[in-house]
Structure formats: C-alpha cells, structure tokens
Amino acid sequence: MRIDKMLANLGYGSRKEVKQLLKSGAVRIDDVIVKDAKQHVDEKNQTVTLNGEVIEYKEFIYLMMNKPPGVLSATEDSAAETVIDLLEIEDQVYEPFPVGRLDKDTEGLLLITNDGQLAHRLLSPKKHVPKTYFAVIDREVTEEDIKAFAKGVILDDGYETKPGELKILKSGLRSDIELTITEGKFHQVKRMFEAVGKRVVYLKRISMGPLPLDETLELGEYRELTDDEVELLREYQVR
User: Are 210 and 236 in contact (CB under 8 A)?
Assistant: First the structure.
C-alpha cells in the first residue's frame, strides 16, 4: 500500500496534508525517513512511525456497542443521531457500519464493523444466526405463548415467523422474558408479541450468535472485540 494512502486511511489528514507530513520528515518506515508519497509499505511486516510513535494499521475494525435508546442503527442521518456518531474519530475513519439494525428505542448489543464478508455471514437468512432479547411485556406471558412462539406466529402482514424460543423469567401484570429468534424482520419481537395480544414496553438485545453483550459497557459505550471474539464469530456454525 502507498504510504500516503495508508496515512490518509487512518485519518492523519487529506492526501495533500499527508504529503506535507511526509515532506517534513516526520514519517519513517523501519526507521528510515520517507518523503516520497508514492513509497509503498508492507503494512503487516514493516514498522511505520510518525514523530517517533508507531502507527498500527488494521484493515478491519470490530466493535461491540451497548446501543442506547433514541439512536439510529445507521451510518448517517440528516436529522437524528446515529451509532456511528457515537464513535471516536479514529474509529470512524475505518468507515464501519452496524451489522443489522436495532430499532431506535431498543437497547443492547450491536456489532459495528467494516468487514462486509463477516457482516453478510451473520445477517444471511440462510445462516439462521440466533439473536436473544430481554424484554418487559405489558401483560402476563403464559405457557400458551411459549407454545405459540415455538410453532411460529402470524404477523400483522400475514408473514409466519420461524420458531422462536421464549423463556419466562417473571410472569405477572408485567412479565420479564427472553426470546431467541433467527430472523430480523422489521420490529419483529414487538410484532410477535402483538400477534398474541401483548405489548413490548422495554427491549434489549443481549446476544448475537456466540457473542453475549459485555455487561460492563454502559449505554452508548463500546469496545473493540478481542481476537478470540472475532474468531468465534468467523467460525460460528449454527447446529
């Protein structure tokens, strides 16, 4: 990769600004000053420094966010705040995008990456990657609901969902539940409960495939996935 492209991709300025950096002698490859913007660098095997600081180049970025309510799962929006707006500039320069969507008022686990291949694998309807949600339901959730969800319910548009695994954590006038589904239809969890005459008043995604939400993340906080977590997602096979 050309050194000017690498530095620009990492957010060190426009191509023009990066050329000025190079001319100043601030950039070194393997401790040799580089001033030629066209100079190629092997980003995996050579060490690049800027003013003595080592620059780490990554092709892909993998982030886990605890999405807060009121924020869109989108890369940009002219009127509303998006999950990308919550990222630091040094992460935004990788041009990541959310893997799937959480409704605006839904909280919880959201993966953000620029790895299109991994995103496709996790979202492909053929892969049936399970997603688990915690929800508070206005009304009592019963064994009949568990049976109905296990068969699949008919949504308001006539679509019959694939089977979902419903667990009742607390039942009463307001019930706490966990629901695992393998689809991602628009407002699916809310519409599934509407199909059995009940209403979701709080919704949080707590896992996706093999990856649980890091409960130490406050709403709106995020962190990079560990190498092991990335490998888990890459190797994940639905049994």
Answer: yes
pLDDT of residue 24: 95
* Residue 76 burial (C-beta neighbours within 10 Å; 0-12, 13-18, 19+): exposed
- Average pLDDT rounded to a whole number, residues 174-203: 96
* Cβ 60 vs Cβ 115: under 8 Å: yes
Q: CA separation (Å) from 40 to 9, 19, 26, 101, 185?
A: 14, 14, 16, 38, 45
Phi, psi at 10, each rounded to 5°: -85, 5
Residue of 4, 30, 36, 103 marked catalytic: 103
Structural tokens at position 115? 């790895």
- Respond yes or no: is residue 91 known to be catalytic: no
Please tell me the distance from the alpha carbon of residue 148 to that of residue 219, in angstroms, as a whole number.
33
Q: Is the pTM of this model over 0.85?
A: no
